[in-house]
Amino acid sequence: MGSSKTRNTLLAAACGIVFGIFSLWFVQFAWQQIQEHDARPRRASLKSQLMRRKSAAMDEALQAIIRGNLAKVNAAAVKMKRSAGNIDGFLSTPVYDEHGEEFHRAIDDLLAASGENDRDASRDAILRLEKSCIECHYLINQPAFETSER
């Protein structure tokens, strides 16, 4: 019986050591992966996240303008301008730069018009803003074969 108990104790100790070594390896591996991800975050997902915020603010502004609530239009325009400022560094392409200028002019006009409670100017600015978004995304999202033909 004594040798069986010693053998079981040694087996349990060996299993504990193996489990401990595996646990330490796993923690180090996980820590390394986290550090690598922090050092090189995926820009595409960040860009998409920022673009979704900008798009959500555009939706808010459109819903508010339809309801005639220029205070909410202005608040949404502020969100859109902030999101656009954050995303500009990620989208340095000729298409974005060209349409980005029109976007920024339209957003500034929308901020001014909605801040002054000018319904007509707000409507015109938001239509220009929406058009600049559609034009840019239309060009950016063209299939590769269409882009190469131009």
Fold blueprint:
Layout: H1 2-39, H2 43-67, H3 70-87, H4 94-115, H5 119-140, H6 144-149
Strand content: under 5%
Average pLDDT, rounded to a whole number, is 84
Gross geometry: elongated
Kindly state the percentage of residues in helix: over 70%
* Largest beta-sheet details: none
How far apart lie the N and C ends?
A: 86 Å
Query: Radius of gyration, Cα only, in angstroms?
Result: 28 Å
Structural class: mainly alpha
Query: Element order, helices and strands?
Result: HHHHHH
Helix count from the secondary structure assignment = 6
Low-confidence spans: none
Number of strands: 0
Describe it for me?
- By secondary structure, the chain is mainly alpha-helical.
- It is built from 6 helices and no strands.
- Helix 2 (about 45-65) packs antiparallel against helix 3 (about 70-85), helix 3 runs antiparallel to helix 4 and helix 4 (about 95-115) runs antiparallel to helix 5 (about 120-140).
